[in-house]
Amino acid sequence: MISFKNKLVLITGASSGIGKAITLQLAKEGAKILIAGKNEDNLHIVKNECLKHTSFCESICFDLLNPSEVSAAASEILSKYGPIYLLINNGGISQRSLAIETPIEIDRKIMEIDFFSYVILTKAFIPSMIEQKEGYIAATSSLSGKFGFHLRSSYSAAKHAIQGYFETLRMELKEYGISVTVAYPGSINTSISINAIEKDGKPHGIMDPAQSNGMSAEECAKHYIKAIKKGRAEVLIGGKEIIMFHLRRFFPKLFFKIIGKIKST
Q: Does residue 263 lie within any of the structural domains?
């Protein structure tokens, strides 16, 4: 089992939800924490909570939508703090709009935030991990990264892309002592549906029933961190909705019959 004590960890999307829960749990394990997000006030709150459990926590504010900001932040981190041991690509945004009604600009925005920002950050930190001959990369996908679902075409596409990219990366980096885990959360009680964007780019503003009745972010973080400690290639996290993954895999005809009848929110 991997120990994070005194290891430098960077978590994106750390100002709320799963990212915040992961941050606080790793802080309790004595990790040195770097938290990233675009809401400076929320990051400051998380930083103060984090410092109750660990002696080191710094925040870096940047927007995952802006590739130059992402690259600049990575360079600043390497220059100021040196190589990181664990990178958790977790920041992202969801969607609530029909594919045919979604402008290509919104499709590109979702892909930029949910996929390309992960690639930019990961590529920035891989060389120093290779030099150190150790490192760990984790990426937050979604159950929607295993199959498509109503109103989430580009979100699902970005999450599918995460699976393809990071599974390949896991194979390529194994010889350098670098591990990769992809997490697939299902319905987790966070504000993801509230912050999801609609076809006009505005927030959905509604808490979906699946989220409100879902697993807590804290419980999700426990499963996520446990998977990293064990070096697992992937981990499915959630409640009864995980059954849909197994249906898709073993009984695809039944899966498509059921998924088509589920009310979209």
A: no
